[in-house]
Amino acid sequence: MDVGIGLPNAVLDVRGPELVDWGRRAEAAGFSVLGTIGRVVYPNHDDLISLAAVAGATDRIGLMTSVLVPAGRQTVLLAKQAATLNAVSNGRFRLGLGIGGRDDDWLALGVVPKNRGQVMEAAIVTCRKVWAGEPPDGVEHPVGPKPIDLPLVLGGYTEPAFRRAGRLADALLCGPMPPEVVGQAYEAAKQSAADAGRTAPALLAARYAALGDDAQEEADRNAASYYRFGGPQVVEAVAGSILRTPEAIKETLTALEQVGVEEVCLWASAAGMEQVDRIAEAALG
After folding, report:
1. Exposure of 249 by Cβ count < 10 A (0-12 exposed, 13-18 middle, 19+ buried)?
2. Is 143 helix (H, G, I), strand (E, B) or coil?
3. Is residue 23 within 8 Å of residue 285, measured between CB atoms?
4. Distances from the Cα of 184 to the Cαs of 40, 174, 177, in angstroms?
């Protein structure tokens, strides 16, 4: 099983140049991918621009939005941006999408937050048409560039999301949930893929991590800030899911591998560069 690490684009008080340094260090440590967490109404760095900056500073490590919310984005332009990032990174970029749980991310971009699943599926269809070289509706010529190999990853926490990934995605990304629930989600995705006559998507997972006594207060502050929209119970659940010891990381990776996960992205909940080394030692050592 491969192990990646989150690029801390949504961690409070991270400066732009630190993201590039983090990417270089993560590649040197041997992680398989850098994942970003996407929001609009929050003081985070944009997913695609952050990954583009890191792409120019690295050579091997994968790049993935995990996940980006397409609501309000012009879909043809999103497809073009994703194809460009995939091309300039020599095929290292994967586009991860999700419907998101916040209305303000939609409203800030002038879109009414309704029919989220339908909006997502329409965006997927458009992206795949653009990447295949088919002209978008209303024009005669295709939109480039042609991506090298651009996997589409879908994240989610609900049965419809799991089944959508089975029908439409190259991979399903399961966020912080118990390993047995991840296994159940994958069964739903595989059944949906079989019903659609498709090969089952790959199974990916993500977990928050913060190692060291000096990182725990910061990790709790980041969880409270990012998830306060969901209320105290959501904040408590997220904070409780953070892997805070090397033993917790090792046990979680083993459990996820047993249910068929092919890659885990460990989103760092604290920004210190030492987190890269600590997480690498626990997960890759």
Report:
1. buried
2. coil
3. no
4. 31, 11, 11
Q: Which pLDDT tens digit goes with each residue over 8-67?
A: 999 999 999 999 999 999 999 999 999 999 999 999 999 999 999 999 999 999 999 999
For residue range 116-125, what is the model confidence (pLDDT) as tens digits? 999 999 999 9
How far from 117 is each of 81, 114, 124, CA to CA, in Å? 22, 9, 11
User: How far, in Å, CA of 158 to CA of 141, rounded?
Assistant: 38
Amino acid at 226: Y
The pLDDT tens digits for 140-154 are 999 999 999 999 999
CB 30 within 8 A of CB 280: yes
Task: Please give the helix or strand (H or E) that residue 275 lies within, else none.
Answer: helix 274-284
The residue among 194, 196, 189 whose CA lies nearest residue 174 is: 189
Reference 279, options 240, 239, 252; nearest CA is 252
Range of the domain at 146: 2-6+9-284
Q: What is the CATH number of the domain that holds 140?
A: 3.20.20.30
- Report the domain count for the chain: 1
Residue type, 65: T
Query: Strand 202-209 to strand 171-174: parallel, antiparallel, or no bridges (unpaired)?
Result: parallel
Query: What angle separates helix 116-131 from helix 75-88, to the nearest 10 degrees?
Result: 50
Pairing of strands 263-268, 202-209: parallel
